Amino acid sequence: MTLRRLFPLILCLVTSMLVSCNSDEAEDDVIYDFQPVIVTFDIQNLDGKSRLQPDSEGCVADSDIKLIYKNQEYAVRQIPPSPETGRISRMYLARFYGLYYNRYDQNASAGQSLLLNVGEFDGAENLDETFTIRHDGKEDEFHIIHRVQWKGDTPHTITKLYLNGSEIQYGETAILRI
C-alpha cells in the first residue's frame, strides 16, 4: 500500500487521538457550561411597531439610547466586540458588552431585524442587578434576579426579570413603549 493511500488512515488515527478523552480523567466528571444572562428588548410605538428598524417611521436606532449600569453610562454598540481568542478554559466565559444591537432573522421573507441587548451577565453566578435604559427623554428600569441552585450534582437556574417593577417573562423580548 502506498503512502498516499495510507495518509487518510493515518490522519484519521491522529485526529481521533487528539480529540479522545484522557484515560486519567474520572468518568463521572461533568463540566457545566452556563448560558449567560442577556436581556433583549425592542422600542415600539403605541401601535406595536418597532422603532429600531431603519425603515420604520420615526426610527430611533441612531438616537441617543443609553444604558446606565453601576453608575456608568454606555452608548449603543452596533455589535458586541469579538471575543478574545486563545482562551485557556474550556468553559464559556461571559463578557459584559454593555448595550448592543442584535440582528435576528424574523422570517425568511422579512429579512433581518434589530433588537437591543444588555449583557452578558455571568449565568454561573447568583445575580441581583438593576439597570436603566434612557431613550427619548424616558427611563425604563430593569431588575434581574438570577439564582443557581444545586440539587445534588445538577444545577438548576431560575431567572426573573422586572421592567419598571412588573415581572415579565425572561427570555422573551421586552417591549419599551414611546
Strand order of the largest sheet: 9-8-7-6-2-3-4-5-1-10
Biggest β-sheet strands, sense, barrel: 10 strands, mixed
- The helix-and-strand class reads mainly beta
Over the alpha carbons, how many angstroms does the gyration radius reach? Answer: 22 Å
The proportion of strand residues reads: 35-45%
C-alpha termini separation: 74 Å
Low-confidence stretches: 1-21
Give the total of domains. 1
Q: Please estimate the helix content.
A: under 10%
**In sequence order, what are the helices and strands, one letter per element?**
HEEEEEEEEEE
- What shape does the CA trace take? elongated
For the residues shown, what is the average pLDDT? 80
Work out the number of β strands: 10
Number of helices: 1
Explain what the structure shows.
This protein is mainly beta and 178 residues long. It has one domain (32-82, 91-177). The chain is built from one helix and ten strands. Strands 9-8-7-6-2-3-4-5-1-10 form a ten-stranded mixed sheet, with no helix packed on it. A hairpin with a 3-residue loop joins strand 4 and strand 5. The protein is elongated.
